[in-house]
Amino acid sequence: MSRRRHKSVLDRESAPKPLLSKQHSRRRFLIKAGGALAAGAFGAVPLRGYAADPVNIGALYPTTGSMAQIGVGCVAAAKLAVEMINDAGGIKSLGGAKLNLIISDVQSDTTVTRTETDRLITGNKLSAIHGCFASALTLIASEVCERAKMPIITGSSSDQLNKGRKFTFTPFARASQFARAQLQMSKLVSDQPKVAVIFENTAFGTSTSNGLKELAPGEGVEIVMFEPYSAGFTDAGPLINKVKASGANALFSVSYLNDLILIVRTVKQVGLNVAINGGSGGFVIPDFYKNVGKLAEGLQGIAHWNHDMSPDCQKVNEAYKKITGDFLFEYAGGLVAQTFMLADALERAASADPQKVREALSTLDLSSGYAAMTPGGKVKFGPDGKNVYGRPVGVQWQNGDLASVFPQEDARAPLIKS
Amino acid sequence: MLETVAQAVINGLLIGGIYALVSIGVTLIFGVVKIVNFAQGEFVMIGMYVSYFLATYFGVDPIVSLLVSMPALFVIGVLVQHFLIRRVLGPNDMPQIFLTFALSLLLLNLALLLFTANYRTVHTSYSDEAFHFGGLYIPEAKLIAFVVAMALSGALWAFLRATDLGKAMRAAAQNRDVATLMGINPNRVFCVAFGAALALAGAAGSLLMPFYSAYPFVGQVFVLMAFVAVVLGTLGNVLGALVASLMMGIAESLGVQFVGADSGLIVVFAMLLLTLAFKPQGLGGGRMR
Description:
The complex is a heterodimer.
Chain A: H1 2-14, H2 21-41, E1 45-46, E2 55-61, H3 68-87, E3 99-105, H4 110-123, E4 126-131, H5 135-148, E5 152-153, E6 168-169, H6 175-189, E7 194-200, H7 203-219, E8 222-229, H8 237-246, E9 250-254, H9 257-270, E10 275-277, H10 286-292, E11 300-303, H11 311-324, H12 330-349, H13 354-362, E12 365-366, E13 379-380, E14 393-398, E15 401-406
Parallel strand pairs in A: 2-3, 2-4, 4-5, 5-6, 7-8, 7-9, 9-10
Antiparallel strand pairs in A: 1-3, 11-14, 12-13, 14-15
Helix pairs in contact in A: 3-11, 3-12, 4-5, 6-7, 8-9, 12-13
Chain B: H1 2-33, H2 40-58, H3 66-88, H4 94-115, E1 130-133, E2 136-139, H5 140-162, H6 164-174, H7 176-181, H8 186-208, H9 218-232, H10 238-258, H11 264-278
Antiparallel strand pairs in B: 1-2
Helix pairs in contact in B: 1-5, 1-6, 1-8, 1-9, 1-10, 2-3, 2-4, 2-8, 2-9, 3-8, 5-6, 5-8, 6-8, 9-10, 9-11, 10-11
């Protein structure tokens, strides 16, 4: 016993000495091994195959990092769309050329998005690009595409994407339209909507909520509380306490998934009777229901695409469900339509040249087929690249599914008032 | 008005209980082993995933899964101390800082690789329920978490006071060299301290699971508050960390209520700065316990 104790004291005294030799090499090995692993895990993965002279389409999505769960779904939808077009005979005016999807991971990171977009354009002979889900990423990709004169089509909703750009096409509703539709939906729930707006204090939260604030008086909606919060809080209790004190009968939460789950649960615990509108993004994906469960029933949201809008949407939804097991969510569904828009442009351009594809996109005018899977069912781009018929669709969680409930023309189920 | 304040205090106290479990772990390790464990938050994250997988695949209630997560984290703690921390204990602080920081990064990225960035929640029958009385409410899941957290803190307190091993730990915390001379095996004491601290982190994870989502970055949310609480309550002082955590929970909640939902932390950090300015040793008065 005494010897062991003695040894431990000695160990401690001599501990710093062997630090350099043995430890150093092990650490080096770990660094190197880690680097090798990382190099294998990232990077673009070109999908090869098919016959001669395929038409290359670039796809920029975050398949790793914080937005990975949506990015992975987008890639699955992009592959499905390409498969559908190729199975139907490819681009006929180009001798039945097949579409070839080249996927690049933008890692949910703006710097990576810039380099990956550059790399995708310079490293491949592309005809067009689609991407990137998050507006912050799409804005950067679209800048790079403008400089390289490469057409990019996107479902991202930032209004900035339509400013001073010639190669950027946005077939779906813009952020400003989302805000107006949300306000109109609150009037369906109550004749005198008193809305509490809570939003995370980021660019996304601030711009979306400011849009709501500006439009509210014109829509006859009273905003009784307008409160930014720091994203990633540990407890929604204090915030909901404030909502309760404001006397609101409707709650607009501009939040990402984790905060929204806490908010919804706390509202239930407090026993507060408010109609919650969770907006879009993380709110209209299957994961939201999986996480929140029955509490999601009756919650409202807003989307640029929904899987029950038309028979075509439902057909694509079924195909997607077979592959992934989940329903086709907003962004991925819109992406299928976008791929068909690109196919239509390629068909009419009869060329894989990006400039000619851009010209063909700018004269695109469709009201049928998979490319017209938009709320309202029509696509035609204005000079700013905006779909002149673009509008959002109001949705509500009903029986574990997302039902279109607003506006009247797009509604496939009646709005349930809780 | 009074009701609003009362509710804010209740909310703050409840979340403060979770902060306490994390910060007591940090302060215990600092007090005994004399290193700052930057990876403490990641061990909370591991605790959450343990409870998540047990609940999802075996239907174990997250609170019951404490019985798995705490021993598991204890063993991990002993292994980390014995094979990693022990080798960098010495006069130089830098290797220790790098080691625990690297451990934090490693665990975080490993979790990203294995579990992806998805949010994972467990739904229990009491997740969305609350007790109501006189206009106030107490969420059931948080009440359970608070009670268990306080019980565990009390158990640790009793352990440090009453058992030989606990006394040895306090002795090692007060003066390592003298403790060694008195026949205390430092590495054994360190292993137990590290294990106990990680077991508390694991408990925090399990207790969080019924009302919070697990994701790889979740530890970072709680570890920041833990570090503030540890400094506020005097480094190495278990009781100080407990009291400071509860105070911070309340301060944050009142801050959200009366300053702004994006500035609840301002009150917390103002509290920290004022304490450091007037009582640089922290609220514990500089006594190690």
